[in-house]
UniProtKB/TrEMBL annotation:
Principal subcellular localisation of the protein: membrane
GO MF assignments: fumarate transmembrane transporter activity; malate:proton symporter activity; succinate transmembrane transporter activity
Keywords: Cell membrane, Membrane, Symport, Transmembrane, Transmembrane helix, Transport
Keyword check for Transmembrane: yes
Listed GO biological process terms: L-aspartate transmembrane transport
Membrane topology of this protein: Multi-pass membrane protein
SUPFAM superfamilies: Proton glutamate symport protein (SSF118215)
Organism expressing this protein natively: Pedobacter zeae
Cellular component terms per the entry's GO annotation: plasma membrane
InterPro entries for the chain: Na-dicarboxylate_symporter, Na-dicarboxylate_symporter_CS, Na:dicarbo_symporter_sf
Entry protein name: Aerobic C4-dicarboxylate transport protein
Localization: Cell membrane
Length: 434
């Protein structure tokens, strides 16, 4: 009997081991993590080759950007036409903007408070590397231009057009036929996105290899205190502020972060929260947020709810003030928050816009040398990961909050989630077999 049972036990163990390796081999998160590690190693060992990998990361982000406009358009139009109640659409929009302004202002204040507390700018300027910041400081006096912001922000443009189309479709007699066609198109777009996401490890590898190869880990040492303060502040903001908001709605920030781990790793590798915009919308819908809330809150949040960027901007200004020995009074710090409440909204959608916003804010203060931006350029790329990660988590939490407040949050039962996971694993196995 013992001899007969032993081969069966060994066979079961072998099958269990195979199942574990099958899960790992088909897990996108695993491959993105491997790609990030490979990018760091290549950037450290062969910087010249690593810099050439930029084209891979950029190409992946450019492909993802092709999906952003149709996904936002389809999600919003279907959400509004399916909701029926246009007053509710307006209420969701107003709630979202109020939430964004309150939380963004709070993040600005936290950034200033932590910079004042830890004083990351109390270091010797002579040891810092100076980069060329002339393209950001040549015309800072222009300040923030809402027309320019709208004309250069595709997300806001698509959002506005989609809202108009959704409202018009609501009153059309051909609404049902149009909705059926748009739902079919939406499924095809998301199917295309699913296949493109298989390239995510390549995008993460290219982005990380370029960053390490171009700027090098050695550039972090002189500004290690600033880097540490920024990451600490954003960590506290995520787990205390956003975590507190989630706890109010009887939800866990840890579970939410675990749920969107694939998107977070992708953002970490590419240094761009845009790379995960389409998939985070899909994830939030699966989580239980209604299509209409996701469609309205996420695209608007990517332009008006940049918590990580707000923290970085406010900390950078205090850092430069400390670096040049400029004393700022309480009223001047409050005025910085007031100015950044407006100018920080222009830090979305345009590469390098964060420095343009910093330059225009410094010009408005008239106390801190704008040339100080040259000291930040060397480590900005390494801090962009923290900004992007905080931005995407902040927008995810905002969507859940608005959905909860509007009773538009209907989480799946655990049995349904398990069924979805089993179905997904079955599809993956079939694809591997064929």
């Amino acid at each position: 009997m013992l001899i007969e049972k032993l081969p069966q036990t060994l066979d079961q163990q072998t099958q269990a081991t195979r199942r574990i390796w099958m899960r790992i081999a088909t897990n996108l998160t695993f491959w993105v993590l491997i790609a990030i590690i490979a990018g760091v190693l290549l950037g450290s060992i062969a910087p010249a080759i690593a810099v050439k990998m930029e084209i891979i990361g950029k190409t992946f982000i450019d492909i993802i950007k092709l999906f952003i406009a149709p996904i936002i358009f389809l999600t919003i139009v279907l959400g509004i036409s399916g909701m029926g109640d246009l007053k509710k659409v307006g209420r969701i929009g107003i709630k979202s903007l109020i939430y964004f302004e309150v939380v963004s202002t709070f993040s600005l204040a936290i950034g200033i408070g932590m910079a004042v507390l830890f004083k990351p700018g109390n270091i010797d300027k002579a040891n810092l590397q100076i980069q060329n910041a002339s393209k950001y400081t040549s015309s800072p006096e222009k300040g923030f231009d809402w027309v320019h912001f709208f004309m250069n922000n595709l997300t806001i443009q698509v959002l506005l057009v989609a809202i108009i189309v959704g409202i018009v479709l609501n009153y059309s007699k051909h609404r049902k036929k149009a909705v059926v066609g748009l739902e079919y198109l939406s499924k095809k777009v998301f199917l295309g996105l699913k296949y493109v996401m298989y390239l995510a490890p390549l995008g993460a590898f290219g982005g990380m290899a370029y960053t390490i190869g171009k700027f090098g880990l050695h550039t972090l040492i002189p500004l290690a205190k600033l880097m540490g303060t920024v990451y600490l502040t954003m960590g506290l903001f995520i787990f205390i502020v956003l975590g507190g908001i989630m706890r109010y709605y009887k939800m866990s920030i840890w579970k939410f972060i675990k749920y969107i781990k694939e998107e977070l790793l992708l953002v970490l590798g590419t240094s761009s929260s845009e790379s995960a915009l389409p998939s985070i919308m899909q994830k939030l819908e699966k989580m239980g947020c209604s299509k209409s809330v996701v469609g309205l809150v996420i695209p608007t949040g990517y332009s008006f709810n940049l918590d990580g960027t707000s923290i970085y901007l406010s900390m950078s200004i205090i850092f430069l003030a400390q670096l040049y020995g400029v004393h700022l009074s309480i009223w001047e710090m409050l005025s910085i928050i007031g100015i950044l409440m407006v100018t920080s909204k222009g830090a979305a959608g345009v590469t390098g816009s964060g420095f343009i916003v910093l330059a225009s804010t410094l010009a408005a203060i008239h106390k801190i040398p704008i040339e100080g931006l040259a000291f930040l350029l060397g480590v900005d790329k390494f801090m962009s990961e923290a900004r992007a990660l905080t931005n995407i988590i902040g927008n995810g939490v905002a969507t859940i909050v608005v959905a909860q407040s509007e009773r538009e949050f209907h989480p799946q039962k655990e049995s349904d989630v398990r069924s979805d996971v089993n179905q997904k694993n079955s599809v993956i196995k079939k694809e591997l077999v064929y």
